Amino acid sequence: MSLDFSQPQRQSAAGIIINGAYVAQHLVRAMFIPLALFIVKANKTALLYTAFGIIAVVVLAFVYGYFYYLKFTFYLNPLKQEFVIDKGIFSRKHLTIPIEKIQQVNINQGFLQKIIGVYSLQIDTAGADSKEVDIRAINGEIAQALRQHLLHGQRTPTANESDKETTVAVSTDAPLIKITAATLLKIGLTSNYGQSIALLIGFGYAVFHNIKELLKALDNDYGQVEQFVKSGFTLFSIGIVLAAIAVLLLATNVIRTFIKYFDFQLSKHSQSLLISAGLLTKKNTLLHPNKVQITEYSQNYLQKKIGLFKMSLKQAHAGREQSEKEMKNNNTEIPGCSAAEKNELLRMILGRLPKEGSTFKPNWRYLNLPIVFQVLLPVLIYGIFYYLIAEVRAYYPLAVAYFVITLILTYVGYTKHRISVSDAYIIKQSGIWDISQEIIEPHKIQSISTSQYPWHKKLDIGHVSLHTAAGSISFSYGNFTEIKTLVNYWLYQVESGDEDWM
Amino acid sequence: MQHFTNETIDLSTLPKYEETPLTHPDPKYWRVIIINLFIFLLLIAIGLGLLMLFNESVSMNWVLWTALFIVFAIFVCLISRASFKRRGFALREKDVLYKSGIIAEKTTIIPLNRIQHVALNEGMFSRMFGLGTLQIYTASGSSGEMHIAGIEIEQAKAIKEALVQRLVINTKAENE
C-alpha cells in the first residue's frame, strides 16, 4: 500500500455522514427533555411542525457535516516531525502537534462507524485536550498506517521503514493477555462494586426525578411516586429488598464489564503495547511502556481466592488541572489477569520484576483522625438524635453495627498502609477492600513535599508525597527522621541521574 | 570503555534538605499580607453589618456577633503571622526548596531538571512594594507546583533568569 501522509488530505468520505450524525446527535441530546415534554403535550398540527423542525435540523446538521468534511485536513510534516490538522468552518483552527509529544494513539469504532466501516483516530498528548485531535472518519488501513507513523516517527526517521516492517510482522503474534468470557464473568462478580453502586444510585435518582418531572408537567403529581416507594417498603421485608439490590448490583457489574472489556486483548507490538476491547464500540489503544508513570495492581479478598489481579497503567496527564474523567482516560486498565500475566506485564513496563525493599509502616496515630471523624462523630450525632427524637431510637442496633464495622475497616486500612523502598522502585500499598500496590521508579518523580503538624514534632512523625506526572503517592504518619533520609536519597537519585521521565 | 563506578551510597553523607538555610520573604511582604487581610475582614464586616440591619435575631445579639468577629479577626491575624514567619525558600545547586504552611509545616522540593517552566507574577499590592511571586511548574500539575511569594522583584528576576538558563541547558542536553 502506498500511503503518503506528507500531503494534506481529507477524512474518508463517510466522514460527511459521521460528522452530520455527530452534530445531529448533540443537538437532539441537548433538546431531548423539552422536546419529549412538548410531544407529550402537543396536539396534532404542532406535532407536524415539530417533525418538520426536526427534519430541518437533521438536514442542516448534515450540510454542516459536509462543509466540516471539506474543511478538515491533516498531514504529517516529515521535515519538522509534526502532525498538522486544519479544521473549522467559520473559525479556522490550525493545530500542530510535535510527534515526540504524542503519548498514545487511539483507534476506536463507534456503533455508526461500525455500520459504515470506518474508524475514528484520537491522539493523546501530554499538555493538550484530547478532544481537540479527533479524526472521526478514517479508513481502517490508513488509520493503522498513520498510527505506525505517529508512534514510530519518534525514533530516528531513517529507521522508520524497517521499523514499520518488523512491527507488522510482530503484530501477528499471539496476544499476551486475552480475557475469555468466563474470566469476564468472574471479574464482573468480584470487582468495581463502588462504581456500580454510584451508577445505580445515580440511575435510581434520575428515574425517580424524571418520573416526577413528567407527572408535574402533566399536572397530576399527587406524590404517587413517594407513595409507591413507601408502599414498597411496607410490602417487602427489608431483607428481600437488600437481596434484590445485591442481585441488581452484580448484574449491572457483569453487564458493565462485558460492554467495556468484551474480547479484551493485550499484545506486544515492537516497542509498544496494543490493547483492544469493547462490545458495542471497539477501543484500540497503543501505548509506550516507558511513558507509564505509575504502575498499579490491586486485588481484593474474592479476587485473591480465584487468583485474579486488576492492573492500571497511569500515564502523564496535562500539566493543568483536569477533570476526574479525563484523568481516568489516561489510565489504561487491565480488568483481570493471572499472577503470571501480571508479572510478565510488569517485566515489560519496568524492565524487571520489582522486589520488595525496606518497608516503612505508619505510626498508630494514623488512626486518630479517621476514628474521630468517621467513627465517633457520626455515632455522637446519632446519640444526640437518640435523646431528642424518639423515632430514631429503634435503629440503635444499626448504630452499633456501624461503629464496629467502621472501626474494623479503619484498622484494616491502617495495617495495609505501607511503603517499600528499594534502590530502583518505590512501592506503596494501600486500601481496605481492594488492596493496591502502586509502583513508581524514582526518576519519574517530579517533585517531593513533606509536611508535619506542630504537635508531631516531638513524636517525630511526618508525611511525604511524591508527585509524578500521573498523580501523587503519599505516605502518612511515618517516622519523620526516616522520611527525611528517604527524601534526601530520592533527591539524590533524581538529580544525579539523567534518565528521562517520559 | 567508559569510566564506570558503582559504589555503595552512604545515606548519612547525602546533602540534607532539612538543614538547608532558608531565605525568608522580604519583611515588606508582611504589609501586603496585612492589606489583603484587611480587605478580607472588611468584606466580612460589611456582610455582618448588613445582616445586623436586616435580620432581627442578629441585631438583637449584636454584642455576641461583634465579639465573635473580633475573635475571628485576631485568630486570622495570628495564624497569618505564624505562617509568614515560617515561610522560606532556598535555591540549591540542583533543586529549589520552599517551606510554608498555615498549621502543618510543608516543605516542597523541585529538582531543577524537572522544572517545566517558570513565571513571575506581580500582584497589585505586591508591585507597590516592589515584590513579586515566583511560580515554578512541573509536569505533575497543581499538586507539585510552587508559588514563592514576597521576593524582591530584582532578586526574583535574577532567580527566574538562572532557572530558565538551567532549563535551556537541560533541554539542549536532552536533544543531544
TrEMBL record, chain A:
The chain crosses the membrane at residues 12-40, 46-70, 193-211, 231-251, 366-389, 395-414. Keywords: Membrane, Transmembrane, Transmembrane helix. InterPro entries: UCP026631, YdbS-like_PH. Pfam families: bPH_2 (PF03703). Residues 81-150, 414-475 form the YdbS-like PH domain. This is YdbS-like PH domain-containing protein.
From TrEMBL, chain B:
InterPro entries: YdbS-like_PH (IPR005182). The keyword Transmembrane helix applies. It comes from the Bacteria. Keywords: Membrane, Transmembrane, Transmembrane helix. The chain crosses the membrane at residues 32-54, 60-84. Residues 86-162 form the YdbS-like PH domain. This is PH domain-containing protein.
